[in-house]
Design goal:
Layout (H helix, E strand, L loop, with lengths): L6 H9 L17 H4 L38 E5 H6 L5 H5 L5 E3 L12 E3 L2 E2 L4 E3 L2 E2 L11 E8 L3 H4 L6 E7 L7 E9 L3 E11 L5 E12 L7 E13 L5 E14 L5 E2 L33 E16 L4 E23 L6 E28 L2 E22 L6 E2 L14 E22 L4 E20 L10 E2 L2 E2 L3 E15 L2 E12 L20 E14 L4 E20 L2 E22 L4 E16 L3 E2 L2 E2 L11 E9 L5 E10 L2 E2 L7 E2 L2 E11 L4 E8 L7 E4 L3 E4 L4 E9 L1
Parallel strand pairs: 5-8
Antiparallel strand pairs: 1-7, 2-3, 3-4, 5-6, 7-8, 9-10, 9-40, 10-11, 11-12, 12-13, 13-15, 14-39, 15-16, 16-17, 17-18, 17-19, 18-20, 20-21, 21-22, 21-23, 21-24, 24-25, 25-26, 26-27, 27-28, 28-29, 29-32, 30-31, 32-33, 33-36, 34-35, 36-37, 37-40, 38-39
Length: 731
């Protein structure tokens, strides 16, 4: 039996503003990483500079991709300068700078955390840290990030299973031979407090230590009782820097203590209460601050550990070999309230019991060989690799009654919870995979290049639910193994690149991806009748162009794309829930992007995406409404982001940004629509000295009411207007 009232433990955490006192790093206030690799920091650097430097020099941290100008695919890199200038503290904050991405609420067996869609398709398991998959359900902090890369379109050839709409790669900070200690401390509205530190200390000519650390505490702007508390530390040591053989070892530890939030409920289309007749199929007409959870029951404790050892060897000027061994463990223990109407005729709301006591672990080893060589008149840039991984997930079956009803318009989040939470068993899942891949970019001449990649994946999953108790009467433990058939899939990418000049390219790319019939996300569909289900398969076509303008200080991109899931899961019929692979989904779109320097004092980072997501074929019927012909859920037609920084006079920087998300549906039957919204942000920074600066960020200037994270049964209001004042330094 488990305690139904953990509030005693949580109360202490709620009163602690910060667990540690740290000074921190505002990477936006540092010189760009590209400069740090090529220049000595003998002189102090202005800490408030947020200039986006030389996009033509931008390269993906993934050697399979290389220089962005030559990649036949849409790739957006959000640099450290933009992350810090906008005061982004989480991965979600960072990704608001990338159009074509929509946020999702935790629901349907998926825990709270970084749930999102890219180009209309879920990217729940398409999260990576330095190219290594990270499947944990948690909120990722930005304190140890150098940049974030968004690779759009099917990318199984790059990363393996999943990646229908794209993938997210977080690039970690690593030691260099530059000596510095930098930091920020900040406070603001909604009890905001944050401190970080970034200390890089050379030990010798080839050895360096780097320590990043963070402490954060804040309430959710505009939400009653919702808060986030977290702290993290990331020490790293590197040997052999600037030599032919290098070894890097590091550990990241992140702990979180949050009040989880599922927002407000949708009014069901079947609700018969006359006072809600005009709101059927719409968000409940309530104050956006309303909290329907139970502060005496709900909690979210998350602990994440990431350990890495990487060895690199330059065999010659043209050949290098690397091996990365990584272990990731995330443990989530949480109770969250899902707001639902008490009955079909009620205007009262109950807090449905949702619990997760889950541990996700992954041990993965990647070996990579890169080589440059020539065959006759053809120049090659080749990459080949081997990846071995084991993923384990354990999730307890816990049950508990829902709360007593509370008033829709004036919820009592302090009402007592007298239910008993019972542990009914545990879900055990293991996934083993082996991957082999090879990529080659061939320069045919100074104007034409051909890029191609091939990846073979073998994925085996075992699902073992062990039930400890039946409903009545109590029975001995029961265990059922679903040994899913082993999937073996070949994914590939190909692209043709034409470079009319050295600073521009026009390309056509094609790629494929696959999703296993059963994996860590869709275990709810695991039954003996569908363990032989083949993977879903997707393909994408993209025609685009990229140009480095204004003496290569500005990168401009544009692309037309189509992504098709050709055999999506769907029931056999409206009357038979047996899953078959006869559905079809399609997203057509267009996107443009601009990043870099417009003038010596004005930089910009902007993008726009138009999407048309369609369910071409489906047998799914919900509330007598078929999905076929409808728009894919959480796929807004238009999304737009811009951030600009201007230095009107020396030592002063001004920044402004906007985000637009068009109307989108919360379900595939299109009966629940989320309104469009605009938000506007602003920033002002001043260099007090060469080493110290102050910065003010204001978010949601117009105090717009909007919905951010969207689920089928509930949706969370976006953050209200807030402001943060921070002090940054670098020595």
């Amino acid at each position: 039996m488990r305690s139904s009232n953990p509030s005693g433990v949580k109360a202490a955490a709620k009163t602690a503003v910060l667990r540690v006192s740290l000074a921190g790093a505002a990477a936006a206030l540092l010189a760009p990483a590209a400069l740090a690799e090529t220049a000595e920091l003998d002189e102090p650097t202005s800490v408030s500079s947020v200039t986006v430097e030389a996009p033509g020099a931008e390269r993906s941290a993934d050697p399979k991709i290389g220089k962005l100008l030559d990649a036949p695919q849409s790739i957006t890199i959000v640099p450290q300068e933009v992350i810090e200038a906008r005061g982004a503290t989480t991965l979600r904050d960072v990704l608001r700078n990338v159009p074509g991405i929509s946020m999702q609420a935790g629901e349907g067996g998926v825990p709270n955390g970084d749930n999102l869609t890219i180009r209309g398709f879920s990217a729940r398991t398409d999260m990576f840290v330095d190219g290594v998959r990270d499947v944990g359900g948690y909120t990722r902090d930005s304190f140890n990030l150098e940049s974030v890369e968004v690779i759009k379109g099917p990318a199984s050839a790059y990363v393996g299973r999943g990646s229908t709409g794209g993938s997210i790669n977080q690039v970690s900070k690593t030691p260099t031979l530059d000596r510095f200690v930098a930091g920020t401390v900040g406070g603001g509205s909604s009890a905001y407090a944050r401190a970080t530190v970034d200390a890089n200390l050379p030990v010798s000519d080839t050895v360096a230590l780097r320590l990043n650390a963070m402490a954060y505490s804040a309430d959710a702007p505009g939400r009653d009782e919702v808060y986030a508390r977290r702290w993290g530390v990331a020490p790293t040591i590197a040997f052999g820097l600037e030599t032919a053989t290098r070894l890097t070892a590091g550990w990241l530890h992140l702990e979180q203590d949050n009040m989880p939030d599922y927002g407000i409920p949708w009014v069901p289309e079947t609700n018969t209460n006359p006072t809600l007749a005009a709101w059927r199929g719409k968000p409940a007409p309530v104050d956006p601050s309303n909290f329907y959870g139970l502060v005496n029951r709900d909690y979210e404790d998350v602990r994440t550990d990431v350990g890495t050892v990487k060895i690199e060897r330059d065999v010659s000027d043209a050949v290098s070999l690397s091996n990365t061994l990584r272990y990731i463990r995330t443990h989530r223990d949480s109770v969250v309230s899902s707001p639902r109407f008490a009955s079909a005729s009620s205007a009262d709301v109950v807090a449905e019991f949702k619990h997760r006591d889950q541990t996700d672990e992954i041990l993965i080893n990647q070996t990579l060989l890169t080589a440059r060589f020539a065959t006759g008149a053809l120049d090659h840039k080749a990459v080949a690799g081997l990846e071995l991984s084991r993923e384990d997930s354990k999730n307890h079956f816990l049950s508990g009654p829902n709360s007593s009803p509370t008033n829709l318009y004036n919820p009592d989040f302090r009402r007592p919870y007298t239910g008993t939470i019972v542990d009914n068993g545990i879900n055990k899942v293991r996934g083993d995979s082996v991957s082999l891949y090879a990529f080659d970019t061939v320069a045919l001449n100074e104007h034409w290049e051909v890029a191609a990649g091939l990846r073979w994946d073998r994925y085996e999953l075992t699902y073992n639910p062990v039930q400890a108790l039946s409903v009545t009467p109590q029975q001995p433990n029961t265990s059922v193994d679903f040994n899913r058939k082993t999937d073996e899939m070949v994914s590939w990418k190909a692209g043709l690149i034409y470079k009319p000049t050295s600073n521009g390219s026009v390309y056509f790319g094609y790629g494929t991806s696959f999703n296993p019939g059963i994996d860590f996300v869709n275990l709810a569909s695991a039954t003996p009748t569908n363990t032989t289900l083949d993977p879903e398969e997707s393909r994408s076509y993209e025609l685009g162009t990229k140009w480095e303008l204004l003496d290569k200080s500005l990168l401009v991109t544009a692309a037309l794309f189509r992504t098709e899931k050709t055999n999506a899961r769907t029931p056999t019929s409206a009357f038979d829930s047996t899953v078959i692979l006869e559905g079809e989904q399609r997203v057509d779109g267009f996107e443009i992007g601009v990043s870099g320097q417009l003038t010596e004092t004005l930089s910009v980072f902007a993008g726009y995406t138009w999407m048309d997501g369609t369910i071409v074929k489906s047998n799914t019927v919900t509330n007598l409404i078929p999905e076929q012909g409808k728009t894919l859920s959480n796929t807004p037609e238009n999304t737009f982001n811009v951030w600009a920084t201007w230095e009107p006079v020396q030592k002063v920087q001004l920044g402004a940004g906007a985000q637009y998300v068009g109307a989108r549906f919360a379900n595939n039957t299109n009966t629940r629509e989320v309104p469009e919204y605009w938000t506007f942000d602003a920033m002002a920074a001043y260099d007090v000295t060469d080493d110290v600066s102050v910065r003010v960020n204001v978010y949601n200037l117009a105090d717009e009411r909007y919905f951010d994270n969207v689920g089928g049964g509930h949706l969370a209001p976006g953050a209200a207007r807030s402001a943060v004042l921070s002090l940054g330094f670098r020595f």
